[in-house]
Specification:
heterodimer, A: alpha+beta, Immunoglobulin-like, 3-stranded antiparallel β-sheet, 2 helices, B: mainly alpha, 11 helices, 0% strand, transmembrane helix (chain B)
């Protein structure tokens, strides 16, 4: 017990340094975790043939110098990834369309969220604002 | 990989912790150097979340097998036993995962709000080239002294070993360029005549690299072998390996899904070009 550090540096087997056991141990743990998680995902995760299901909702409205920014949250509830997702916001007043803004998001991965922003000149708080996801492409 | 029963490779000297730490440091350097182009390619990040999980799993397992084989010829320490090769491969995976996670994290590609699956997938895809880089770092970054055991192993690798090295080189280079959109775009731009010309060029380059340029260990090609034996034994076989490797990589990345036969053939030929170069220079890099 006088010099415990020396015990650490003494290899368990001659020729293999302790550090190698540690590195290989970390590698083994990571390998098992990766194989386990990806394997589980392969069997249970991606429901084959299930389409992406992206829904848009208004996260926040902020006034800026040129008008208003509507931050939109895109949430994909399906495990399938949607690419080139279009999002549209429409400002209506008594059934009349006042303004329409569109944005495009490169990817909304499966079971994930992505954000987008729409610019309006009129105050969305004073009218009816509807946002919706327009469509997607397969990645 | 086949072990020669009568392995005359010199048994490696016992290593200390500090020797191994040096090897690990080189491995981290190699992991970053060789995977940097892919860490900075957005298609690689996207593949992390949309890639088919069965294919990702297969890629990861195949990568591990390749790493174990490469450990004999490269790796961070001289090895003679299979157990050592497996331990080296595990350490390379550890280095690859950690290096990928750190770099992607610093780039802001990973953030805490992403679902676990996305973060995990991005790291696993990147760890393939990174662990490869970690494994071959020794060859590239180590002093000449450390080379002797590996060169001895390479010199007696035999025909199967040579083909394995070609496959590893082809896999690495094909993996480097396959994720980008340009691979598909090039395929669209080419006419069948261009494709044929590219096949010729690939074979020509492969042959020139393997036999024209002076390679270490090249002398193990038996003296007096005819042009035909060399051409069909190494060049044509090497090109076949490059094409098969390309097809595998394309399939892994989902590029072949729904593509017509003609298009798959063109893409395979396009990717076969870097793969052939990778196969040809495998002995230099690995």
């Amino acid at each position: 017990m006088a010099k415990p550090e020396q015990d650490l540096t003494t290899p368990a087997k001659p020729g293999i340094p302790a550090l190698e056991w540690i590195a290989a141990g970390i590698g083994l743990t990571l390998t098992l975790v990766i194989v386990g998680v990806i394997g589980w995902d392969a069997v249970n995760g991606t429901a084959a043939g299930q389409p992406p299901a992206v829904e848009a909702s208004v996260a926040r409205i902020t006034p800026v110098a040129t008008g208003y920014v509507v931050e939109v949250k895109l949430r994909n509830r399906s495990p399938a990834t949607a690419a080139s997702v279009g999002v549209e916001g429409e400002l209506t007043s008594g059934g009349t369309a006042l303004e329409t803004s569109r944005a495009m998001v490169d990817y909304v991965p499966g079971r994930s969220e992505r954000g987008a922003g729409l610019f309006f000149t009129r105050n969305p708080a004073q009218h009816t604002l509807q946002v919706r996801a327009l469509g997607y492409a397969d990645p | 990989m086949h072990r020669r029963a009568s392995s005359p490779a010199p048994s490696p000297p016992a290593q200390s912790n500090s020797d191994y730490a040096g090897g690990l440091a080189r491995a981290f350097g190699g992991a970053v150097i060789f995977s940097l182009p892919m860490l900075m390619t957005m298609e690689m990040w996207f593949l992390g979340f949309y890639m088919d999980r069965f294919r990702l799993l297969l890629l990861f397992i195949l990568n591990f097998v390749v790493l174990t084989g490469l450990s004999r010829f490269s790796g961070f320490e001289p090895t003679v036993r299979l157990v050592d090769d497996i331990m080296d491969a595990l350490a390379a995976v550890a280095v690859g995962v950690i290096a990928s996670a750190v770099v992607l994290g610093i780039f802001g590609i990973l953030d805490a709000q992403m679902p676990f699956n996305e973060i995990f997938g991005k790291i696993v895809v990147q760890c393939v080239p990174a662990s490869f880089g970690a494994m071959i770092a020794r060859k590239q970054l180590a002093g000449a002294k450390d080379q002797e055991t590996e060169d001895a192993a390479e010199a007696e690798a035999g025909y199967g070993g040579q083909l394995f090295l070609m496959m590893a080189g082809a896999l690495f280079l094909a993996f480097n360029v396959a994720p980008t959109e340009e691979m598909i775009l090039i395929g669209f731009k080419m006419t069948p005549w261009h494709s044929l010309a590219l096949v010729m060029l690939s074979i020509l380059l492969l042959h020139a690299f393997v036999f024209g340029v002076g390679f270490p260990g090249q002398e193990d090609t038996p003296e007096g072998t005819t042009f035909n034996a060399r051409f069909f034994g190494y060049t044509v076989t090497g090109y076949a390996i490059a094409l098969l490797t390309s097809l595998f990589v394309l399939w892994t990345f989902g590029r072949t899904d729904g593509a017509g036969l003609q298009q798959i053939a063109t893409m395979t030929i396009v990717l076969g070009f870097p793969a052939a170069v990778g196969a040809a220079i495998a002995r230099l890099v690995v």
